[in-house]
Amino acid sequence: MTDFTDEEIEAARVLFSRPATFVMGCAKIEQLPDPDLPEVAFAGRSNVGKSSLINGLVGMHKLARASNEPGRTREVNFFDLDGRMRLVDLPGYGWAKASRTTVKKFQDLGRDYLRGRVTLKRVYLLIDSRHGLKAVDTEALDALDKAAVSYQIVLTKADKLKAGEAEAVAAATLKAISKRPAAFPEVAVTSAEKGGGLPELRAAIARATGADPYA
Ligand SMILES: Nc1nc2c(ncn2[C@@H]2O[C@H](COP(=O)(O)OP(=O)(O)OP(=O)(O)O)[C@@H](O)[C@H]2O)c(=O)[nH]1
Ligand SMILES: [Mg+2]
Fold first, then answer.
1. Is the pTM of this model over 0.90?
2. Does residue 29 fall inside a structural domain?
3. Pocket test residue of 42, 45, 47, 103 for ligand 1, highest count of atoms within 8 A of CB
4. Mind giving me the DSSP string for 104-147?
5. Average pLDDT of each block of 10 consecutive residues along the chain (215 residues)?
6. How many domains does the chain have?
7. C-alpha span between 159 and 166 (Å, rounded)
8. I need a surface site. Which of 40, 111, 132, 178 has the fewest CB within 10 A?
9. Ligand closest to the CA atom of residue 54
10. Domain CATH code at residue 96
11. 157 lines ligand 1 (CB under 6 A)
């Protein structure tokens, strides 16, 4: 894992304890906020824990709407972190119950956002630590590699596994993505529920965006 200094971990803690607010949910690409702040986006299968991870990072339970019902997040949702950066919650993919046209609409929107956003510093591609990479994830990785959007894989729900198991999945996942050009060569292990891995992920996001908590 990347070594973060104690100072970086502390600076990231301060950064993410600043006020976070919901900016807007966009259903159309024309509605996106002006690209005037660095952004990081959270992508992954429906129900993988994108909205929960955003809540965990900022320490707020109800900022992003999370739910056990897949397809909860249906727009591209923007959250502002005290004018320093934005966290972007994307609609999930692989959601079997939605109609084809609905799915296509979400996916086209997510894809358009990911491809064309000049201020997008990194995508966090979430994978359920119990399941590892699936075929639908591979498609998402292919699209990110093709668009040359820098992304890092983040395993979620590590609290559902026994100690050490998530690390084994992380090692296998890292091996599987080793030849992918746009992949960050580390896999993060997190639990939004218990907070595991969140200090390091905050530090990684602070580095990726260059956001200064003290400015
Ligand atoms: N045990 C555990 N459950 C989690 C964790 N993160 C999310 N969950 C649960 O997983 C379910 C889905 O979480 P969401 O955050 O809504 O998932 P999402 O990826 O935003 O889903 P969509 O918006 O449908 O794409 C919820 O019931 C969460 O409580 C975690 O770290 N540990
Ligand atoms: Mg969601």
1. yes
2. yes
3. 47
4. HHHHHHHHHHHHH-TTEEEEEEEEETTT---HHHHHHHHHHHHH
5. 90 97 93 96 94 97 87 86 96 72 75 91 97 92 92 98 95 97 97 98 97 89
6. 1
7. 9
8. 178
9. 1
10. 3.40.50.300
11. yes
Is 56 touching ligand 1 by the criterion CB < 6 Å? Answer: no
Is 167 within a domain? no
Residue type, 125: L
Q: What tokens were used for 86?
A: 């934005």
In a domain, 95, yes or no: yes
Q: Which of 6, 7, 5, 8 is nearest to 206 (CA)?
A: 8
Q: What is the pLDDT of residue 104?
A: 73
C-alpha of residue 63 to centroid of ligand 1, in Å: 13
Task: Characterize 147-175 residue by residue with b for buried, 16 or more Cβ atoms within 10 angstroms of its Cβ, and e for exposed.
Answer: eebebbbbbbbbeebeeeebbebbeebee
